[in-house]
Structures are given as C-alpha cells and as structure tokens.
Amino acid sequence: MKHETVTGAAAAPMHFEPQAAPKPGYLVIDQLWKVFGDFVALKGVSLDIREGEFVCFLGPSGCGKTTLLRAIAGLDLQSRGSIRQAGRDISSLPPSKRDYGIVFQSYALFPNLTIEKNIAFGLENARRPKQEIQARVAELLALVGLSEQAKKYPAQLSGGQQQRIALARAMAVSPGLLLLDEPLSALDAKVRVHLRHEIKELQRKLGVTTIMVTHDQEEALSMADRIVVMNHGVIEQIGTPTEIYRHPSTLFVADFIGETNQFPARMIRNDTVGLAGTELACASCEVAAGSDVNAVIRPVDIIPHALDGREDIKTPQNLIDVTVTEMEFLGGFWRCRLSSPRLGERVLIADFSINAVRRLGIEKGGAMRAELPQNRVLVFPKAA
Amino acid sequence: MSAVVSALPAGRAPRLQLSSDDVVRRGLMLVIALYLVLALAAPLYVLLSKSMSTYRFDLNAFEIQRSDDSGTAFGPARTVAALNADAKAITDAELDTGSDGRLSLTKLYEDFSFRSPVKYRIRGTTNDAAFLVGSDLKRGTDWVEVDSNTFRRVVLRPGRSVGFDNFVAYFSTPSLAQAIWNSVLMGAISTVLVIAIAFGLAYALNRSRMRFKGLFRLVMTVPILVPSLLPGIALVYLFGNQGLLKGWMMGHSIYGPIGIVIGSVFFTLPHALLIISTSLSVADARHYEAAAALRASKWRTFWTVTVPGARYGVISAAFVVFTMVITDFGLPKVIGGQYNMLAVDIYKQVIGQQNFEMGAVVSVLLIIPAIAAFFVDRIIQKKQVALLSARSVPYEPKPNPGFDWGCFAYCTLIAAFILTMIGVCQLAAMVKFWPYDLTPSLKNFRFDLMDGGGWASYYNSIEMALLTAVFGTIIVFTGAYMVEKSDGFRAGRSLFQFLAMLPMAVPGMVLGLAYIFFFNNPANPLHALYGSMAILVICTITHFYTVSHLTALTALKQMDREFEPVAASLKQPFHKLFFRVTLPVCLPAILDISIYLFVNAMTTVSAVVFLYSTQTQLASVAVLNMDDAGDVAPAAAMGMMIFYTNIAARLIHAAVSRVLLSRTQVWRGR
Ligand SMILES: Nc1ncnc2c1ncn2[C@@H]1O[C@H](COP(=O)(O)OP(=O)(O)O)[C@@H](O)[C@H]1O
Ligand SMILES: [Mg+2]
C-alpha cells in the first residue's frame, strides 16, 4: 500500500513539466547570500518556485537548508539578495508582514493550550465571530483526522498527532506558502512513512505552495514535485525526483541521491571513458578527452547475465566477466560485491533482484557477466 | 575574516523593517535597561568617582584687587596665595576639604571692616575656578566687583582632583586598615567552618537513607527567613553578659570574633548547603560502582570520588559564603563589639562621621572580593554544566544502619543549633525580662513605646516587601523575556545582560551608599525619590535582581524558541503570546521570584539602612535600632515578627501555587 503512495508521488512531477506549470514565479529567490560572522552559509542561491508546487530542500546536515528557509520566513535576514513572493518584494519584511505558515521540527505547540485552542490561535483576532472560528477549527481537525482530540493538551498526543496539529495550526489562516523544517525527523520510521503520504495528500488537496526541508533523500524523492539539492551553501541541482535520480548533474548529487560505484577514470573520447584496465562506453558528455574524471554507475543499474551468454544481450557493450566475492541479502534484493582483473583493485557493488539471482544461479564465489549499460555510466569531471 | 566577507557581492545588506511588535519589545527592553542604569550603573559610577575625588582649595586659582577708600582706584591684582603668604591667615590643613568646602577671604585683610567703603574685585585665574557671592555661583576669569559688606559673603570653592589619595589616606590609618584584615580573617574562618558543616549536611541528605530528610531540609532553610541581626541577638542572650550559658565561654567574650563567626555560620549555612547539595546530587552512580568493583575502601571512595565530584560546588559555596560574611553588616553591628569590620566601617564613616568620601573608599574595597567571587562563580557554573551534561546515572544510596544513624545524629545536632538560636529569640521576646523574670508577656511587642519606628515600621516593611515582590517580579520577568525572546539588537541585549548580572557583585551597603550619593543630590531630577518608599523598593529590587533574573531566564530558556516565530507567522502580536502562553507556562518561576523578593525585602538591612526616612522606617532596621538603644528584647520580638511574616508568606505562596498550578498547569501531567 505504501508503495502505491511512492509511485504516485513519483508520477506527480509529470504535471509540472515547465510548459504545463500553472504560474511560474510565485516565489523568486535571487542571488541570496548569508554570512554568520565569517562563515558563509548561503552563496548566491537563486530559485524560482511555482504556485501550488511542493518543493524539497535536500542536502546533508549543515548545508544551509534551514538558513534558506528562515530567510524566506524572515526569521534570519539574508546578507545579500532579494526574495519576491506573489509579485511582492518581501526581502526586508518582518515575519508578521509575510504570508506563510510554518511547522518546525519541534512542532512548537503551545503546551498550556488545548489542541482546539492551538489551532484557533491564529484565527482569534480580526474580529471574527466565535462560531466561524469554531467551524474552521472543526474543519481543520477533520482534515487532519483528529476531531476526537480537540479537548486534549499537546502532551497527551503522540508525536505524529502533534505534528498534524502543528500542520493544522499553520494552515488555519490559509497562508499562501507553507514552510516545513524537517517536519518528520522527530518521528519513528513507521509513522514517518505514513505521514509523508498524509502531508502530501493534504498539500494536494489544499493546493498550497509548500517548501519542505529534509536531509532524507527518500522523503524528498517520494514527496516532492521538485527537489533542490544543496551542498555547502550552493544549489547543486534543481529538478524532478526522476531527473535528479537519473540525470544527476554533479558527482555530489549522484552520490547523495541513491548509491553509487565511483571509479577514477580518464576521458578517451566524448563517449568512451578509460578505467584502470578497461574502456567503457558512457553517456556522451562534453568533458575534454584526456582529462581526469569520475565514472559513476549505480548498483541497481548493473544488469546481470550468465557467463555462457545464453541470455540475449541487445547491445553487447560494457560487458565485464566478474567473480562474486560476497553476497548480502537485504530483504528486497541481493547486494553483491563483484571483482574482476579489468577493474583492478576496485570492487563493483551491484544490487540484483531475488528473481535474477535465482534465475542465473548467482552465488558467492561464482563467476558471472555484468553489463554496465552505456547510458547509465555517468561521467563527472574531477573537482579541481 | 574580511577575505570571506569580501566574497559577498557588492551592495548593502537589507535591513529588516521593524514590525510594531519589535518596536514595542525594544521599547520595553530600553525602559528596563534605563531602570537598571538609573538604579544601578549611575549610582555606582557616582560612588566610584566619589571615592577617587579629593577636594582642595587652590589659592593660586584666584586673584583679588582691592580699592582705596574712595572705592574707585584699585590696587594691583594679587593671587590669594600671595596675599596669604603675607597674612598667614589660612593654614595648609584648612585647604584640604570635602566636596562642600567653603573658604572665606576676609581674614586675609587684617584691617577688614564690612562697613568700610573699600571695594574688592575678585576673579579666577582659570576657567574652572569657582567662588560664591552669597549663593550666587561665579566661575571663570571675569572680574566680579563687590563692596566690603558683600565681600564677607564671598567664599571660595575647592577644586576637585581625581586620584587615589583617599585610598592612601585609608590605608595609612592603622585602625581602618585593620578592618580589612579583620573582615578577611572572619570571612576565612567562617567559610572553612560553614563549608565543613554544610558538606556534612549535604552528604547526609544526599547519600544516606536516614529518616526525616524533608524535615531537616526545611529546618536548614530557617535562617533565610530572619535578618542576620537575629543570630547576633540570640548569641547575646545565650552567651552575653547576662547570658544563660556564659560559663561556656570560659572567660572569653561573645562580643567580637567568636560571636561573628558563630552568627555567620548560622546565616550563611542555608546558602552553602543549597549549592553543595546540588553538586552532590548530580553524582554519577557509575563512579561508585567502579570504585566498589575496584574494592576501594569507603574512605578512599569518599576522597577519590565524592570530594572531587563536589569540588565545584564547594569552591562556589566558599566564595558565596566568604562574600556574604565580609559584606554583612547586621551581625557584626550587633555582636561585633569593638571588633572593626569593613561593612560596619562604612556605616560608621557615613552615619557616624558623615565622611562620605571615606565611606565610598571602603565600599570600593568591598566590591573587589565580591566581584572576584562573582567571576569565579561564573567560571565554575560553566564547568559544572559540563559535568552535568555528561549523561550520568543518578546515585541511589543503599541502607546502612550505622551510617544512617550517624547522619541522623549529625543533622539533629545542626538542626538543634538553628532551632535553639531562633527559640532563644522567641523566648526572650515572649517573657517579661529574660532571664530574670520568665512570666509570659507581650510587653516586648509594644513597639510603639520604643525607638525604631514602632509598629509603623513593621507595616512599612510589609508594604515595602509587597511592592518589591509585585513590581520586582514584573520588571525582572519583563526584562528577562525581552532579553531572551527578541532577536537582533545584539549589543543592546548583551549590555542588558551585563547590567542584570551586576547586582550580584554589589554588596548591599555599597548599593545603599551609592544611592545616597546619586539620589541625595539636589541637582538630580530624581532627588524627589530620596526618603520615599519608592527608593526603598527600587533599591531592594535592584539588590536582589540577579538571582530573580536568572530564575526567570532559566524558565524562559525551557520554552520552545519557535513560539515567537510561530505567533508572528500567524500574525498574532507578541503580547497575546506572552499573556496566553509564556506567562502561564512560567507561572511557577514567577511565583518563586515573587516569594524570593518578598522574603529578602523583609529581612534586608544593609542597603536600606542608609535610605529610610522617619516616614519609611522598616522592621529590619527597627531591630537594629532597638538593639542599638539597648531594647534587646523588643529587637528580638521584631525579628520574630519578620520570621512569622515570612513563614506566613511562604505558606500563602505554597497554597496559592498549589491552587494556581492545579488550575493552569493541568497540561503538565499526561
Ligand atoms: N545563527 C547561526 N550562527 C552561526 N552559524 C550558523 C547559525 N545558523 C546556522 N549556522 C551555520 O550555518 C550552516 C548551515 O546551517 P543550517 O541552515 O541550519 O543547516 P541545515 O542544512 O542542516 O539546516 C551550519 O554550518 C551552521 O553551523
Ligand atoms: Mg536544518
């Protein structure tokens, strides 16, 4: 059942092909810099978020995701650069003059107010009639499925329930932008997967433009329409989950999203790369011949064949005869360590399905043939 | 650093537009910072400058011309110094003076007569030289012409110079310098004793399974509820000239070092116990298990595990106790006899001899150890936090009948000491004439028949304590909130934080004296406060600001830092968050602050003793004054009134806390 959710989310980006985007430029971040003392946390970040989009900021801890989010919220003012939301320059507006709801990792629920009062907190001024407030609170409680808990205090709820209340409170005033800072990281694994689905559903139902910060790639891949991969205060790549996964534009992105085999290599032609003891055809790229590069292939992209080659191979390219030195069963698949004289000292890690392992009789110590499909062999220039 | 910052593109950093909330918050912080500047920084500055100021008439700074009998032809201008060289009318000793010094000039002229038609012209030779014509202040180098009659009313004003002359004078007066030695000696002896006793108590309370721990803890806090004068009075009754147990003294007098030490042990014990107890209670069971596994003897375990673990607490407590002893004024005043201590010295210099500059000098000397103690304590607090944050397993003592009974006996002994001191005062207050006529009587409570302000002083004290508790809590909590929960404005916030920590390092006597200098200056627009109830309240709030501030900060720090951003994103003003969430959640801390301020306002003597007026006499000061006048039994009775009041306040506080908390803190329980 959870699998359905993931595929659903992965399919969602199709709606947001650039031409189909309903309204580009809802949130436009231009050359944002942020320094803390002599530490540069953001280095010229530019970003354009469309209306109704679900965007994840993804990156390792300390890369500046929260800093960027807090700049958007007006909680930590940027050192340079501008932010426009819905056509309005909000670069120097205080938080209270901006239009967003926010959910923090800690949820920040008011401990001495009931769930009901927490949600009503943002509704209470504006001389709104009591009934209207009550109705809205009831509506929100129903939306997050916690109508029964209205009179309880936050401490009486589970983490996942608190998280949903925080979401309801943020959405109560119907903000144009929803900001979530690692909203799921304080929860245990099971609740987390469940809530991913719920938050995504809620977002789709309300159509609110949403930015979520996370360091969990699975979370980002399964929820986001577009992912902003960040590292050391710069944006490495912006793209849909499939783009990011299949066409990482930097070695960092390739390495951070999913798993990789990396080999130091040298470019021979624009579609051939030389490894320790072999040449591989690779996705064509613009790297000059003769320069040092990293050749990257994901374990899941390696195709297993039997040695006798009875298996029909459409494009007999990048075939390496290997010995299986180790096998580890990881539940859904087998992780195999493959070695070959053609790879020198390096081992190739490959993930094979249970099915393939059975069919091909792959076993520890046995020999087999591995195919590294040309378009899955990615080449990145060595960092200077 | 500049290299990195130059990595930034050119251009200006955007400036956050202030929201109306920010404006209100900064405004409030400014108001409270201003309060601290006026109630603390400015008076201390004036005190310091007073201690460094010396005043002397500079005869070279003035010139005089004198006319003949016609009043039109003036002679040559001569400096007053030159005139005096001829006349020898003004001696050198007369030139040293105070800030109010005035020097008349008529004696320079042997033949001076106020009826004479001779006229005088006078001017300064520098722009600073000042003199008075009647009450008219003249300054500068313009000639002022007066007739002989007016010349009688011309007086020179001294010049002020800044330097350490006052300190030199102080240290070259043997009897005064002796006070420093005496204070240090008393501080050292009392500290060693108190630390030893308190460590034993803390050890018994934390490491044994004896019974009645709660009761013992309660008894050990009793000294906090009475003025430090009271143990002095108790000692007089026990060991004084007509004392019950005078024989125990074996010919020594209780008036002096012995009395000071015993009394100091009494009133500093709760503070030392609290600090050491805290440091012992964070002990890590794993160390004890390791020691047991190594078959270390009990004694070795004690010295290698327990003592090092508590060392920060012990050092911290030692500094606190030392500072309390040398800065306390009430106890040595009552029991010190001829034994001169620094704090009493300030009192004598100022109240007895009106020598304000010397009082300021002693004050500055008193601040030095207090500031040292303050910084040592800060450093130690940091270390102790580090100790705590290492995940430790709390130590659970195991029953050990012999040891437990030993601890019980020890605690009983100390509790008996404390209760005896209070009990003696209670008895003395309730009988006709201790120890000769023991018929019960309330005559000692007829305060209106004695000096010291009567019952009015008691009611004043209650009024003062209530005002201090209410306004102090509001000021302290608001200040702490603004410091903790507003962002930006960094420099302003650190300055505020510094001001809030400062009172900890300022002894009460010093604060009181600084207030005299600052507020009792007619040129100060706040002069009207002098002698009012308000100044007593302000002084007391300021005196006890730091501990209250830290209590409030601790409570506020436990609140989620994201409440403010959430409220702002929901477009709610900060005051709504403050009253709906912050205040209710911090209610326990707020109640603690108010009772702390109330109790201390009831018992404090040292600061307010300089500031009360006939309309605003206070109970604690009345104890002092009645004792001074020889009405020792009524003094004891008034001391007991303070004690009863504080107990009642504590009970009310407990009851109110319980009701309020049960109503507002339901959310705490699951
Ligand atoms: N207020 C601050 N002062 C100094 N450094 C900060 C501050 N806030 C964040 N940083 C630093 O900026 C970097 C990025 O932080 P952050 O945006 O919180 O990272 P993350 O991507 O994990 O959310 C970190 O190295 C962090 O130490
Ligand atoms: Mg973060």
Strand order of the largest sheet of chain B: 3-2-6-9
* Named CATH topology of the largest domain in chain A: Rossmann fold
**Named CATH architecture of the largest domain in chain B:** Orthogonal Bundle
Secondary structure tally, helices of chain B: 27
Alpha-beta classification of chain A: alpha+beta
The CATH fourth-level homologous superfamily of the largest domain in chain A: P-loop containing nucleotide triphosphate hydrolases
Tell me about the biggest sheet of chain B?
A: 4 strands, antiparallel
InterPro entries (chain B): AminoethylPonate_ABC_perm-1, MetI-like, MetI-like_sf
Pfam families (chain B): BPD_transp_1
Main location (chain B): membrane
Family (chain B): Belongs to the binding-protein-dependent transport system permease family.
Characterization of the model:
The complex is a heterodimer of chains A (384) and B (670). Chain A has helices at residues 2-11, 65-73, 115-120, 130-143, 159-171, 189-206, 217-223, 241-246, 251-256, 354-360; strands spanning 27-36, 39-49, 54-58, 80-85, 88-89, 101-103, 177-181, 209-214, 226-231, 234-239, 261-269, 272-274, 279-281, 292-297, 303-305, 319-329, 333-339, 348-353, 367-371, 378-381. The longest helix of chain A is centred in the middle third of the chain and has 18 residues, at 189-206. In chain A, helix 1 crosses helix 6. Chain A is built from ten helices and 20 strands. Helices cover 25% and strands 30% of the residues of chain A. In chain A, strand 17 (333-339) and strand 18 (348-353) form a beta hairpin. Residues 1-21 of chain A have low confidence and may be disordered. In chain A, the strands form four sheets. A six-stranded mixed β-sheet of chain A has the order 6-7-8-3-9-10, sandwiched between helices. Chain A has a five-stranded antiparallel β-sheet with strand order 13-12-11-14-20, with no helix packed on it. Chain A folds into two domains: 27-100 and 175-256, Rossmann fold (3-Layer(aba) Sandwich); 261-381, Beta Barrel (OB fold (Dihydrolipoamide Acetyltransferase, E2P)), CATH 2.40.50.100. Chain A is an alpha+beta fold and 384 residues long. Chain B is of the alpha+beta class. Chain B has three domains: 55-162, no CATH class; 177-386 and 401-429, MetI-like fold; 444-669, MetI-like fold, CATH 1.10.3720.10. Helices cover 62% and strands 7% of the residues of chain B. Chain B has 27 helices and 13 strands. Chain B has helices at residues 2-5, 20-51, 80-87, 92-95, 148-151, 165-171, 174-207, 213-220, 229-239, 257-281, 285-293, 298-309, 311-327, 330-335, 342-352, 356-389, 401-430, 454-485, 490-501, 508-519, 533-543, 545-557, 563-569, 574-585, 587-603, 619-628, 632-664; strands at 53-56, 62-66, 78-79, 96-97, 103-104, 119-124, 130-133, 136-139, 144-147, 154-156, 159-162, 431-433, 437-440. A four-stranded antiparallel β-sheet of chain B has the order 3-2-6-9. A four-stranded antiparallel β-sheet of chain B has the order 5-10-7-8, with no helix packed on it. Chain B has a three-stranded antiparallel β-sheet with strand order 4-1-11. Residues 388-392 of chain B have low confidence and may be disordered. Chains A and B meet through strand 1 and strand 2 of A and helix 23 and helix 24 of B. Bound molecules: adenosine-5'-diphosphate (ADP) and magnesium ion. The site of adenosine-5'-diphosphate has 11 residues of chain A, from strand 2 and helix 2. Chain B: Residues 180-377, 458-653 form the ABC transmembrane type-1 domain. Chain B: It holds the Pfam family BPD_transp_1.
